[in-house]
Write a structure and sequence with these properties.
This protein is α+β, with helices and mostly antiparallel strands. The chain has helices spanning 16-21, 49-59, 95-105, 130-135, 179-192, and strands at residues 29-33, 38-43, 70-73, 76-82, 85-90, 112-115, 120-126, 152-157, 160-168, 172-178, 198-200. It has two domains: 28-36 and 119-200, Probable tRNA modification gtpase trme, domain 1 (Gyrase A, domain 2), CATH 3.30.1360; 38-117, Alpha-Beta Plaits (2-Layer Sandwich). It is 24% helix and 32% strand. Helix 2 (49-59) runs antiparallel to helix 3. The longest helix has 14 residues, at 179-192.
Length: 203
């Protein structure tokens, strides 16, 4: 784990905090990086009551078993990625205590806990034209009847591998992706959103 004082966001070179201070009002798109979020990849057998109970006790979460859904509690969220895989996300720093606690709780079960927090970042896309913007880069159907709050999916987005989650009715979407794709995707989002007006939000 990288010491907090050594952490550097993959988008730090863009000066997003300074840009947020002068963000225009009334923009159709609001972009922001939510850096250093807790991101833990969890693998296991959801049909095994012992596995589900161990996760619930360690993380305070009931894992979602319906495809492409999210369960959240206590500041954490579990995103369904597959029949035996979830991404647990939360505020920066939670991984330091959560990952070891999950490993201890699952030690005697067929499961895997991988802290991927340092390898990934989160980009937030919000505003009245957010769905229009994302539809330019992904084949997912993002209509609210299909992809409402609490939905998530793994997808290609502007040729980047990403996990997309809708968090509210604004609408706001969070994009979880490897650091190596962050600069490319941010540049694409800004260019593709130019027709709607773009504001940058501080984390």
């Amino acid at each position: 784990m990288v010491e907090p004082y050594l952490r550097r966001s993959p988008l730090a070179h863009l000066g997003l905090a300074a840009r947020a201070a002068g963000a225009p009002a009334g923009a159709g798109i609001v972009l922001g990086e939510r850096a250093h979020r807790c991101q833990i990849d969890l693998r296991g057998d959801a049909s095994n009551p012992a596995f589900a109970q161990a996760v619930a006790e360690a993380a305070g979460l009931t894992l979602p078993i319906e495809p492409n859904t999210v369960a959240d509690a206590g500041g954490l969220a579990a995103l369904w990625l597959g029949p035996d895989e979830w991404l647990i996300v939360g505020p920066p720093g939670r991984e330091a205590e959560l990952a070891p606690r999950l490993r201890a709780a699952l030690a005697n079960l067929h499961a895997a806990v991988t802290d991927v927090s340092e390898a990934r970042t989160t980009i937030a896309v919000a505003g009245p034209r957010a769905r229009d913007l994302l539809a330019k880069g992904t084949p997912l159907d993002l209509h609210p009847r299909v992809f409402g709050p609490g939905a998530c999916a793994q997808t290609g987005l502007a040729k980047a591998n990403a996990i997309l989650r809708r968090t509210d009715d604004r609408p706001t979407f969070e994009i979880y992706l490897p650091n190596s794709f962050a600069d490319h995707l941010w540049t694409w989002l800004e260019a593709a959103a130019a027709e709607y007006g773009v504001a940058v939000a501080a984390d």
